[in-house]
Amino acid sequence: MLYGLMGGTRLIVGCASAVVLIATFNSLTFAQLVPGTGTVLNSDDFEDEAWNFVFNLPKSSKEEDEQIRYPLGASDNRKWSESPKRGTPDQVQRIATPAGGITGSKGAMLIRSRDTGIPGQPMGKQCQDDFILNARPVSIGYNPSFVVRVYLPEWSQWEQRHGVSFGIRAGMQGPQEKQEPTRGFKRLFGRGFETVKTNEPFYPGFFIQYNPKTATSEAHGVLLVRADEMGRDIPAVNITTTGWWTFGMSVTSDGRCHYYAHAGVADLSQADYITSTLPYGIQATYFNTIFFNVCSADNGQNWSTPWVIDDPMVFYGGQPTQYAQQPGRSMNRR
Fold first, then answer.
1. Rounded to 5 degrees, what angle do the CA atoms 248, 308, 260 make?
2. Cβ atoms of residues 17 and 287 within 8 Å
């Protein structure tokens, strides 16, 4: 079943054979855009057998210890780069496309990590690395979007830790208010801080959380949407099917983000719609890029779940359509 649907009321009815979602919606409509609509701005299909990533270790960990360790790692094709904030996954390797992938695809990208915090200093807490697609910033007025296929391995291959395992996110920016020390005459008159508005980055998208098997439930994932207007993650979809999935997010010129997903590798459609939000209440101005988070316990021993991505693509110039919000496809396949 889907959670977080906006624009009306709902009644969820369960029975032995099915879960039925009955919803009534008010007349409110949103301009939405199915991800993958428009012109490709940037992509990588990983089909080049010579694809290679050059690590420059030790990797950066500014988020944890304020250390950016230049030079940063990068792929030979210059499409991917190390994150100065968190560093690159420990394993970045082109592999043969797992079964069931995009028709004709022979190569995909494996990203995996063990040491996701400060290099050589296990922190014993969840940390993450970033795998960043180098893309040209595009104005929100061009209605950007992204689509990516992600291979979810069998549950036994997941890092057996309850919590977030993987992130699929967009780098965006928009005006945000912050407190800064006053200067000049204001400081002379005793005003220590003032509220200023500056363009700051923020990172909406998806997280996949892992819930290990318990006495009362089977192992499964939960797709979290980041974020609602208050910055809270939205539990959106229970994932009970492993294998290939397709994820996408679009942004319309009002700054609203629209989230889509389904099992399999077919192109996204309106039927795959999950929800729409104005993340953090920020009116975005630019869409910068997409990136992927690989999370682990950072205990120096356990590796993250092995994640495989294929054909990440950023689009722009799509024309949104006006339609009433409808419930997307149910992802629970029990």
1. 15
2. no
Going from the C-alpha of 51 to that of each of 102, 121, 130, 134, the distances in angstroms are 19, 30, 18, 16
CATH number of the domain at 30-324, please?
Answer: 2.60.120
Among candidate residues 172, 166, 108, the one with its CA nearest the CA of residue 139:
172
Domain boundaries, the chain: 30-324
**Dist. CA 120–CA 128, nearest whole Å:** 15
Rounded CA-CA distance 268/272 in Å is 6
Please state, in angstroms and as integers, the Cα–Cα distance from residue 315 to each residue in 45, 91, 137, 271, following that order: 15, 27, 11, 20
Looking at residue 191, its pLDDT comes to: 64
- Name the token pair of 34: 């199915």
pLDDT (tens digit per residue) in 156-206 = 999 999 999 999 999 999 998 877 787 765 555 556 777 888 889 999 999
Distance CA 165, CA 325 (A): 30
- Give yes or no for a contact between 283 and 255, defined as CB atoms under 8 angstroms apart: yes
DSSP for residue 186: H
Please, what is the Cα angle at 106 between 308 and 89, to 5 degrees?
Answer: 25
